[in-house]
Design brief:
Layout lengths: L9 E10 L2 H8 L3 H17 L4 E6 L2 E6 L2 H17 L11 E10 L1 E2 L2 E2 L2 H12 L5 E4 H6 L8 E9 L6 E8 L31 H13 L2 E5 L6 H10 L9 E5 L9 H9 L9 H9 L4 E6 L5 H14 L3 E7 L8 E5 L15 H13 L10 H10 L4 H10 L5 H20 L2 E2 L6 E2 L2 H11 L7 H4 L3 H19 L3 H10 L6 E2 H8 L4 H9 L4 E3 L6 E3 L2 H13 L3 H19 L19 H13 L3 H10 L1 H6 L3 H18 L5 H17 L3 H18 L2 H9 L2 H6 L3 H17 L7 H13 L3 H16 L9 H13 L2 H17 L3 H17 L3 H17 L8 H15 L1 H12 L3 H9 L24
Parallel strand pairs: 4-7, 10-13, 10-14, 11-12, 12-13
Antiparallel strand pairs: 1-3, 1-4, 2-3, 5-6, 7-9, 8-9, 15-16, 17-19, 18-19
Helix pairs in contact: 2-3, 8-9, 9-10, 11-12, 11-13, 12-14, 14-17, 15-17, 15-21, 18-20, 18-21, 22-23, 22-24, 23-24, 23-26, 24-26, 24-27, 26-27, 27-28, 27-29, 28-29, 29-31, 31-32, 32-33, 32-34, 33-34, 34-35, 34-36, 35-36, 35-40, 36-37, 36-38, 36-40, 37-38, 37-39, 38-39
Length: 930
């Protein structure tokens, strides 16, 4: 710009922008970076500086602009991001990712510049953003009225900006065409960690914790070495939890066991730290750059799952940052410079000098109490308990197995059995591995070691690593030989039951076993419980039975060796399908209102069944399973997982050439479209909606086509095309009436009602919903959502009828909570917050707003079409209470669980029906959004 610059004064909105990773981009593009930078500057000047903003500074890839109006500033940023995203760059990797930050405050210019802390706050807001993201402060959000067309602000909560003591509430600008999903803001928040929460008590290990703590104080890489089941992970987490305050940049736990490809180890670590891949750059480089100036502890668990890749990431992290320390658990060392290997010892089996029980006995006592329903073992059993832990060499997993046996045996009986077991274990080290039914021995000692490794979730040892971990392997054999010996003593029926149960991911009951085997399982099950290969868990409704994971892995290998895997897993898929069908039926076999709560216990089994369908089974069966979880995935914030399973099943179809009926494909594509919409992937949502329509037309099923077309309005609403969405809804509803399938177009009815509510056509919306009530009541898969009551509550709020709003919303909330529709319950909480605000209860309103936002954030869902309405009503409550009181009350609400918030909302007092009730006060009625 040419001087002189007319700088705004008074209430000024400052905007800072820069390119995320500009140094890396310049290095990658070389001479090609200059034209990219030049084009970036042109686009920003055309969209930012070409408005009424005053450009104060352009340096390198950065802009600093002052605006006299917050709305104009946000509009300019939105236009700039859309221009950058829509521009044709030389290559996709060369597209600059620009982060933008805004803050509004009072400032007066002097000598062509501003000397104000508000400028620094704006710069810190920009520094907290990621490339492609627009962040603004609460002040900007408050003064940006109205927002740009089609745009809204997502409340990201309170954050501490670097250099500022007071927390700042940050908001993200969202609009059609903008990326929505970003890691947490880059702010100077308090020390944090992601260490897993333990569900059982940590027993003993005081000496080991002290030794390991001293090592961690002096060395940057400590590897906890030991056999599977020795307690490496538990000790590492326990130690790290006491060191959180020592690491200002956090303590981060990464489970390498979940990484299936060596190249993804760096991605797993980066994901925990909130980092995103950068185009044209190895993930490990991004990781090292992030860690360079930070002081943090990284706990890498089960590194033996990917030893070489883990070693590379550790080496790069330690070399690139002097403030990073690594605590690793593994069954073999890395051999890296500076590595300190600490072998975890067994639990002490000798009494303490003060006469207290040893750690091993204390653990056995603790677990035995749990196994026996909280009852203390008889004091007369103490001597036998000591014999047990001594025979088990103080190994934690073996002790857990022993405690499970004490459900059906006394300590004396177990001690006698272990005497026999240990002699067999000693012989087992010299003897070969048993055959599939535990009768014939073949192979050699190394076969046993490899089998042990597989049973513990690892891989067979290599020649290069055997010498390094021979001691751990011997201990590993001692623990796993207990399972081998027990299996070797099984008869054919018990051995088969153990193998087949390995296909289940969690506990099963007696009828399930009978269904699986088509045989009475009681006799072989009793044998397995006696040998502690199956754990019996008594419950009021009947006992359930489960395997520990090492035994499950052992049994799964036996299943494959016996040639029974396909048959058993197909039976498991059939059982999973049947379980899904039962969730929709009552005791009389008739359809009942679908409760997503009934699907929660099935999730692990259904995932196991889906995994088989996607890798070795039928994709058609997998699509049926996925369809049963359709609403569950979205209501639990797992829409992305649902999309991934569908992609895997599509790949299985392509791999096998399996013929899938068009109707099944249409249903799958429609479900995929809904998942994509819930996940903010609008383009994918529209693409699969179109595929679903084509497949449904090919199938010739009018009801199916109506369901697909009824969802067509969703992507239009997501893109802000409300008039077009309303037209589509009306066309679908009219067509459904003609085809006598109006019940299948219910989603279009609800979408149309929302659109009518949005533009103030309240009478038409109420009439439409009244006609839809019997249709909703007749559809068991949908009536638990009580969408009619929810939307009638919204209409009543817009009319200022608090009595009707209260009644409709509480009905909707009660149903949604009781039937497990968590995402939709958040919308209802927001609506009840509005009802409370209009009824003179702003503190309750703030709490409900906070609870709804916290749950919605945990589910990674968005408010959808109601977003502007919630935001406007929330702003009114904030203005009424004041910033400090609102933030405190809002935070109280965010700390409530969804169930706690719903319980509080259901206790909200019914509005007074007196003549002076707010129901009849049109002046206080909430305004209707245009």
């Amino acid at each position: 710009m040419s001087p002189p610059i007319d700088l705004p004064s008074g209430l000024v909105t400052f905007v800072f922008t820069d390119i995320e990773g500009s140094t890396r981009l310049a290095q990658m593009l070389g001479p090609g970076y200059r034209p990219v930078l030049r084009e970036h500057r042109r686009l920003l000047r055309d969209t930012l500086a070409a408005t009424d903003g005053a450009e104060l500074l352009t340096e390198g890839d950065s802009f600093f602009i002052a605006f006299p109006d917050a709305t104009a500033a946000l509009t300019a940023c939105l236009t700039a991001q859309l221009a950058l995203a829509g521009h044709e760059w030389p290559t996709p990797d060369s597209a600059p990712k620009v982060r933008m930050g805004l803050h509004t405050g009072y400032a007066e210019p002097g000598d062509g510049e501003y000397a104000s802390p508000e400028v620094h706050r704006a710069a810190r807001v920009a520094a907290a953003a990621h490339g492609g993201q627009v962040l603004c402060s609460a002040a900007t959000a408050r003064h940006a009225d109205p927002l740009p067309a089609g745009a809204s602000l997502i409340d990201l909560g309170l954050h501490r900006l670097r250099g500022f003591d007071d927390p700042e509430r940050l908001f993200q600008l969202v609009a059609p065409g903008l990326e929505r999903q970003f890691p947490r803001p880059r702010t100077a928040d308090t020390v944090t960690h992601n260490l897993p929460t333990q569900v059982t008590s940590f027993v003993g290990r005081e000496t080991e914790r002290a030794d390991l703590f001293r090592l961690m104080q002096r060395h940057r890489l400590v590897t906890v070495l030991g056999a599977g089941g020795a307690g490496k992970t538990r000790l590492a987490v326990e130690l790290a939890s006491g060191m959180v305050e020592a690491y200002p940049d956090g303590v981060w736990f990464v489970d390498i066991a979940t990484v299936t490809d060596p190249g993804l180890v760096a991605f797993a670590v980066a994901a925990v730290l909130g980092l995103r891949p950068e185009p044209g750059r190895p993930m490990v480089d991004t990781l090292v750059e992030y860690a360079a100036a930070r002081r943090m502890l990284v706990v890498l668990d089960t590194c033996d799952a990917q030893p070489a890749a883990s070693a590379e990431v550790i080496s790069r992290l330690l070399a690139g940052s002097g403030g990073v320390r690594v605590l690793a658990t593994s069954r073999e060392s890395f051999g890296l410079p500076g590595e300190v290997v600490w072998r975890i010892p067994p639990l002490s089996v000798d009494p303490r000098p003060d006469g207290a029980q040893s750690d091993a006995v204390a653990l056995l006592l603790d677990r035995t109490m749990a196994a026996r329903g909280g009852r203390q073992p008889d004091p007369a059993e103490t001597a036998d308990l000591r014999r047990v832990v001594q025979r088990l060499d103080g190994l934690p997993l073996a002790i857990e197995l022993a405690a499970a046996r004490l459900r059906v045996l006394s300590a004396g009986q177990l001690a006698e059995r272990l005497d026999d077991v240990l002699s067999t274990l000693d012989a087992g080290r010299e003897d070969p591995d048993p055959g599939p039914h535990g009768r014939d021995w073949t192979g050699n000692q190394q076969d046993t070691v490899d089998l042990v490794a597989a049973a513990a979730g690892g891989v067979p040892a290599t020649a290069a690593s055997r010498a390094v971990r021979r001691s751990a392997a011997e201990r590993h054999v001692t623990m796993q030989a207990t399972v081998t010996w027990s299996y070797r003593t099984l008869g054919p029926r018990a051995a088969r039951l153990l193998r087949w149960l390995s296909v289940f991911a969690g506990p099963v009951d007696l009828p399930t076993m009978q269904w699986l085997l088509n045989d009475d399982p009681l006799d072989p099950l009793s044998v397995l419980v006696d040998k502690s290969m199956i754990l019996a868990e008594p419950r009021a409704a009947g006992s359930t039975y489960r395997m520990l994971d090492p035994i499950r892995a052992y049994a799964a290998r036996r299943l494959a060796q016996a040639g029974e895997e396909r048959t058993a897993r197909e039976r498991h898929v059939a059982w999973s399908t049947h379980a899904l069908e039962r969730a929709h039926l009552g005791p009389d076999g008739l359809p009942v209102t679908l409760s997503l709560c009934s699907l929660d216990p099935l999730a692990g089994e259904l995932r196991a069944a889906l995994r088989w369908c996607a890798t070795g089974g039928s994709a058609w069966a997998g699509l049926r399973l996925a369809g049963g979880l359709d609403q569950w995935w979205r209501e639990r914030g797992l829409a992305r997982e649902g999309r991934l399973w569908l992609f895997r099943l599509y790949g299985r179809i392509a791999e096998t050439g399996e013929e899938i009926p068009e109707a099944e494909l249409a249903a799958a594509y429609h479900m995929h479209s809904l998942h994509a919409g819930a996940d903010g992937e609008v383009a994918e949502e529209l693409r699969f909606s179109q595929r679903a329509e084509a497949a449904a037309r090919q199938a010739g099923d009018a009801g199916l086509l109506a369901r697909v077309l009824a969802g067509r309005a969703a992507p239009l609403i997501d893109m802000g095309q409300f008039d077009e969405a309303e037209r589509v809804c009306r066309e679908v509803i009219d067509w459904a009436h003609e085809q006598a399938v109006v019940a299948d177009a219910l989603f279009a009815v609800f979408s149309l009602a929302e659109l009518l509510w949005r533009r103030g056509a309240l009478d038409e919306a109420a009439e439409l919903l009244g006609a839809a009530r019997p249709i909703e009541a007749g559809r068991p898969v949908e009536r638990g959502r009580r969408s009619v009551d929810m939307l009638l509550g919204m209409v009543a709020l817009a009319r200022g009828d608090l009595v009707a709003a209260h009644e409709h919303l509480l009905v909707a909330l009660r149903s949604r909570i009781s039937h497990g529709f968590h995402g939709r319950a958040c919308d209802t909480l927001d609506a009840i917050a509005v009802r409370c605000a209009a009824g003179g209860e702003p503190h309750l309103a703030a709490r409900f707003f906070g609870a709804a936002h916290a749950t919605r954030a945990s589910l990674r869902s968005t408010p959808g079409i109601h977003d502007e309405y919630w935001t406007a009503r929330q702003a009114e409550v904030r203005a009424l209470l004041g910033e400090t009181v609102f933030d405190a009350t809002y935070t109280e609400g965010s700390e409530l669980s969804l169930e706690e918030a719903a319980e509080l909302a259901l206790r909200v007092e019914h509005p007074d029906l007196a003549a002076d009730s707010l129901r009849f006060d049109t002046e206080t009625a909430p305004p209707v959004l245009p």
